[in-house]
Design brief:
Blueprint: H1 2-20, E1 58-65, E2 68-72, H2 75-83, H3 85-88, H4 97-101, E3 109-116, E4 119-123, H5 126-133, H6 136-150
Antiparallel strand pairs: 1-2, 3-4
Protein name: YHS domain-containing protein
Domain YHS: 52-90
Keywords: Signal
Amino acid sequence: MASVLIRSTALAILMGLSLSVAAFDASSNRPVNLNDKGLVLDGYDPVSYFSGRPVQGNKDYSVSFEGGTYYFASKENMAKFKANASQFAPKFGGFCAMGVAKSKKLDSDPMAWRIVDGYLFVLQNKEVQKSWLVDVSSNLKVATGEWATIKNIAPKGL
């Protein structure tokens, strides 16, 4: 059973890699996942995830943080982010948490996410999210170790 799960996870990640390379600049070594407009989370409000329902942000409420631009749904959410950006910004620069655990910087789907220990983690898609949720603790431990190594390496170099 475990080998089937591992193969399924690896296949999902590899399939996603081939699809997601066009979604972001695979030659960029920046530590944050941006769309073609320079937005993190495709413009979703990172603070809104903590209420359990992500919502699209508004360009009138925007903040630059660690090389990316974040949009917010309200002035209040923008203020919360400014007060504690490292708490609200997605971990691993908004790259897929499972991909990071596999030493890859993969694009993520803002609708495949989870709050763990008060931090936002995004994943490549709902299928990868299911695999990641099987053992969140171990996946996060591995990903945290890998992130230090791959953070400033371009996705195509991994």
